[in-house]
Design goal:
Length: 132
């Protein structure tokens, strides 16, 4: 089968996001209220955009040429995530959801890429610490 894959009883899935959503639904990690579900949906798509933007940079033969523009845009993107998180412990609210796993992955990549990034302080740093 294609990788990654999940076999859970009669359920057979491929594709990372399909597997992630399946596990999240099974364990009630998609948000409970309508507002939480909307926050999950919005953030999932926003994080996928960020992930794709970063992947295009990293795999580009023009990496060194494109890197300055990426670094210039990064603070604004992280500030948006910081505002979205606000004072909540998790991105959807009071309970961990599957988008927190996605957010951790994206933020951890940026933390490794730009360790001195000031936007990775404050509530985003607290989020990373809570998640770890």
């Amino acid at each position: 089968p294609q990788l990654p894959y999940l076999i859970d009883g009669p359920t057979k899935l491929t594709q990372s996001n399909a597997i992630l959503r399946y596990i999240a639904r099974k364990h009630n990690m998609c948000g409970e209220t309508e507002e939480e579900k909307q926050r999950v949906d919005v953030l999932e798509n926003h994080l996928m955009d960020l992930r794709m933007h970063f992947a295009r940079l990293c795999y580009s033969p023009d990496f060194e040429k494109l890197k300055p523009a990426f670094l210039e845009q990064l603070p604004k993107k992280l500030q948006e995530l910081s505002r979205f998180l606000g004072s909540r412990p998790w991105f959807a609210g009071q309970k961990l959801t599957f988008v927190d796993f996605l957010a951790y992955d994206v933020l951890d990549q940026q933390r490794m890429f730009v360790p001195e990034c000031p936007e990775l302080k404050g509530n985003l740093a607290q989020f990373l610490q809570r998640f770890e």
